[in-house]
Amino acid sequence: MIGLPDFPWDRLTPLKQLAASHPDGIVDLSVGTPVDPVPAVVRQALADASDSPGYPLTYGTERLRSAAAGWLRRRHGVEVDQANVLPLIGSKEFVAWLPTFLGVGQGQRVVFPELAYPTYDVGARLAGAEPYATDGLLALGPERVPLVWVNSPSNPTGKVLPADHLRKVVSWARERGAVVASDECYIELGWEEQPVSILHPDVCGGSHEGLLAVHSLSKRSNLAGYRAGFVAGDPALVRRLLEIRKHAGMIMPGPVQAAMAVALDDDEHAEEQRARYAARRAALRPALEAAGWKIEHSTAGLYLWASNGAGCWDQVRALAEKGILVAPGDFYGEAGGLHVRIAVTADDERIGAAVRRLQ
Ligand SMILES: Cc1ncc(COP(=O)(O)O)c(C=O)c1O
To answer: Which of 77, 133, 173, 246 could form a disulfide with 58 if both were Cys (CB 3.0 to 4.6 A apart)?
Structure first.
């Protein structure tokens, strides 16, 4: 069997129980799962497509791919032909399997940020490759690596990588024949800074060669339960990935394809959702600061990356004693040992409760 690390969230269970013992109930700001309704237009589209007896295409419908390409153009200034879009069953499966699909293996390193979503590491291990967490590509010297992940806005830090930084990553990777996969699942949630896609001409110079942008509808449209995402970019890579996914049966259900196309076409619900998160963030951030936490990065995305100077597990405990559950920074890498990640994903009532408890 492939050896993988213990599932980190299991380690939080005792502190979740502590937070849940608060007389007014737990405020769970740990996992970052959406809590607001699935937009009505999307639910209607799912229902309308529910008579779906036949096999859907792994490639998805042209309607879906065109909606994805249209959204990238309209919202992010990215020109992608619909032929170079591939639906994903949520973006997590793709993060976990991309190294395997690319044929990365033993003796090769998959590079991802020092503080990162744990699935980049898992994906390297599933492929039998070596996970390598670093923010400094120069540390690799002349080594050729097959795959570099970037994630802007970042989970967990909410840091945004500016276009000139991404441009350097792209040129470094192109010199070495590395694929750059950019996890852009929080790209619609820019606050003090606006994230830019790896496929934007200011970053890639107009060519998508060697580049893949990974997107998710989980946070933009509250579709975490539908499992809806897509990857777009280098035509040759997308074609190869499609062939493998066809063989492996990685097919997005037809009704979800229909619902996702409608979600991508509609910006109104996404703006409403953004406003909800903005309000929760505006309430929570000063309350944490007044209670002694310093917020770092966090200029975009769904999380506040915070520290009061203590070890991360002591901080998690201090907040759990107030009935507030957050994630320890070391879930995301050793460099997170003095931080906690606080998701702004609770409803307004629960965020209000957290603010009162922090006073
Ligand atoms: C950085 C990052 N990538 C990918 C995902 C996976 O999202 P999904 O599988 O719901 O599209 C998440 C989920 O939180 C994430 O934080």
So the answer is: 246
